[in-house]
Design goal:
The chain is an alpha+beta fold. The protein is built from three helices and ten strands.
């Protein structure tokens, strides 16, 4: 695995690493440092957070191919800021979200607003785990914006340098896809 250790560099630059991941500059006290996470480490952080939180409520498994979605999906997304500039987007089948909401609320009938509220909170917890693991692994301080929810497939602006796509399937064959995309650092 290619890894770039912290070192002094010019402000707002990027360096391409051998494994296809792009390291971005972060401004720290006393100078500039580069993130030293490989693409595999980012994937592991995302996968661990996703499975840890979701598998407490239902079973999901990673799958090698693109997630197979029904015609009824939703998107929840946010932007990370601070030491980690990225978007995180989650696509899920509504049937899975409906089941998860029912399980958490312990009710058979839930309203669309209940599903939306649950989805944003669920994603908020996943994002919190990602931010925590980024700090534990590489001492990258970051925060994330309030998650946004929409029915259907929302595709954030494609401004990023590197995408990490993780696909999952639930025990009821519902599709889940998590996309992490590094954003360029604005000057």
């Amino acid at each position: 695995m290619a890894r770039i250790a912290s070192k002094q560099v010019e402000r707002n630059c990027t360096i391409d690493m051998a494994d296809g991941f792009t390291a971005h500059l972060n401004r720290e006290k006393g100078g500039c440092t580069l993130n030293s996470l490989t693409q595999k480490e980012i994937q592991d952080i995302l996968n661990c957070a996703m499975q840890d939180i979701t598998n407490r409520m239902t079973s999901i498994s990673p799958c090698e191919h693109d997630a197979a979605f029904s015609g009824d999906i939703c998107t929840v997304h946010t932007t990370f800021e601070g030491g980690h500039h990225a978007t995180l987007t989650l696509y899920m089948d509504m049937a899975l979200l409906q089941r998860l909401t029912q399980r958490v609320m312990q009710q058979n009938q839930v309203e669309p607003q209940d599903v939306e509220d649950f989805t944003k909170e669920y994603f908020n917890v996943i994002c919190g785990q990602v931010a925590s693991k980024l700090f534990q692994t590489a001492h990258i301080r970051s925060r994330f914006c309030i998650p946004r929810f929409c029915r259907g497939r929302y595709v954030p602006k494609d401004e990023g340098d590197c995408r990490c796509v993780l696909n999952y399937v639930s025990n009821c064959k519902e599709g889940v896809q998590l996309i992490h995309q590094i954003l360029p650092i604005s000057s």
